[in-house]
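Subject: Sanity check before I submit

Could someone independently write out the structure tokens for this chain? I want to compare against mine line by line before I put it in a report. The sequence has 144 residues.
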Amino acid sequence: MPFIRLQEQDYGKLLSSMTDTSWTVACFCAQWCGACRNWLEPFTGLSEKYPDATFVWIDIEDHADLLGDLDIDNFPCLLIQYGDIVNFFGAIHPEQKVLERLFLNHYASRPGEMKGWVNASPERIAWQEDANLRQMLSQAVKAA
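---
Independent answer below. Compare away.
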């Protein structure tokens, strides 16, 4: 599942693909946002280049219930997650090379290194609880 434009009926399928050793790259966007619309093609292009990772396009207005209290203030907002480890969560410049460098920086890391980063700052600690897509999907699937 290299790219998915998230729909509610896909929650269970996406959740089952998110294993302890899988990479997920999610873009939180909004249909009304011009930068997000322009970013879709480069984002999907990168998903074709790295088919062992799952790239997810999430419209925050269509999935407000899934996101709960998670605040997305700037677009596009990117999540890079390995299993249950949120490696990155934040707004980025919508350019494929920027995303690719950011992704590859984390992709080259070992799980032990990533686990060490989890508690490296208050921001990273908050990401683990607030921005963990696997946990959000699990809660949504249980509630359905």
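---
OP: Matches mine. For the report I'm noting this point. The CA atoms of residues 86 and 132 lie 6 Å apart.
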